[in-house]
Amino acid sequence: MNSSSVFFSSSRFLILFFPPLSISLIICAHGQTIALLQLKQSFSIDNSSSWRRYNLGCTTSYPKTDYWKEGSDCCSWDGVTCDLVTGHVIELDLSCSRLFGTIHPNSALFLFPHLQKLDLAFNNFDGSPRFKFALHGFNSLVQNLTKLQKFHLGGIFISSVFPNSLLNWSSLISLDLSECGLHRRFPANDIHLPKLELLYLSGNEGLTGNFPRFSENNSLMELDFSATNFNGQLPASMCNLKSLQTLHLFGFQFTGSIPSSISNPKSLQILDLSNCGFSGSIPAWLENLTQITYLSFDRNQFTGQIPPSIGNLTHLYGIYFLDNQLEGVIPSSVNGFSSLSYVDLSYNLLNGTITSWLYTLPSLVELDLSHNKFTGRIDEFQFHSLEKIHLTMNEFQGLIPSSIF
């Protein structure tokens, strides 16, 4: 009988016994471990306390590469994802890893030709360019890692122009180059990236040009051009962004009134147009944004009254109209603001009494009505969620209600 198997047979049973197979859990492709260890050696770790003060959005932060050890499967290392069939590294997530150093044109990053996702964001914790690209390093990366779908370098000092070739990456899904020191003029080409869902260029104050135009065939969901040096008008192609959920344009230098094209993406949830130079009245078409949760129009030059249609935005969580020239009374009719937590209408010319629905918001945390012309008495707030309230520089009368204390 062959020693490798045992066979029993009867009229009712067929039973086969095989010796146990030797299965290796190591799937890391040849050379990938060496390349990752080379990458690890090219960076340094910041173990100081400075990252706690400048965490730049990191929920947690720890040196992931400290756990990269020779002799273990590199595909199980923190921040590393491999193709389950080939063992090639396809994702590197080293965000919030306290890294600093310089990425050179011969970096070990270029040893991962199958890389689809690269995230090095949120490592420059003290705000100084301690994690940066050397001269031509960024361009080398863009030219070599053309299969990237997710490309996040937020906070890494690049000091480069925006490369035109990035706009040819048809596979790109997510691009974050915020606070990277990009400068000069943004390419004037229309953006034809049908899979792109996220585009962050905020904090690049040297980046100039007009707001880019987007083709009708797009999947864009999040767009952040805050604190750049773009100017001009919003293009009519805003109507093409039908899937847009988040739009941050803080500090964008516009002129005139808000174009109605912004109201086209009915899925919009976050709209930040603060400090943009807009004037005229707040548009009534806001009522079309039925999914909006965060609305910020502060530090513009809006005049007139707050439109009653604001009362139909039942999903609002935060509303910021501070530092404009709004006048009149707060709309008295709302359809329920069960989630509204933050209201800031300060530094306007609003008058009348505090509308009754502000006293009955079940989730209200902060209310700022200071520096207006409100009159009358302050009533009791019905819920205990309120943490901060600012009512100074108005013309209120009577006693301070006990619910404020």
Number of strands: 28
Strands side by side in the biggest sheet: 4-5-7-9-10-12-14-16-17-19-21-23-25-27
Helicity, in percent?
A: under 10%
Largest sheet: 14 strands, mixed
Shape verdict: elongated
The N- to C-terminal Cα distance equals 89 Å
Number of helices: 3
Q: What value does the Rg take, in angstroms?
A: 28 Å
Low-pLDDT regions: 1-24, 49-55
| Proportion in β-strands | 15-25%
Provide the residue-averaged pLDDT.
86
> Which structural class is indicated by helix and strand composition?
mainly beta
Output the keywords.
six-stranded parallel β-sheet, disordered N terminus, mainly beta, 14-stranded mixed β-sheet, single chain, 405 residues
Verbal overview:
- With 405 residues, the chain is mainly β.
- Helices cover 6% and strands 23% of the residues.
- The protein contains 3 helices and 28 strands.
- The strands form 5 sheets. Strands 4-5-7-9-10-12-14-16-17-19-21-23-25-27 form a 14-stranded mixed β-sheet, with no helix packed on it. A 6-stranded parallel β-sheet has the order 18-20-22-24-26-28, with no helix packed on it.
- The chain is elongated, with a radius of gyration of 28 Å.
- The model is unreliable at 1-24 and 49-55 (pLDDT under 50).
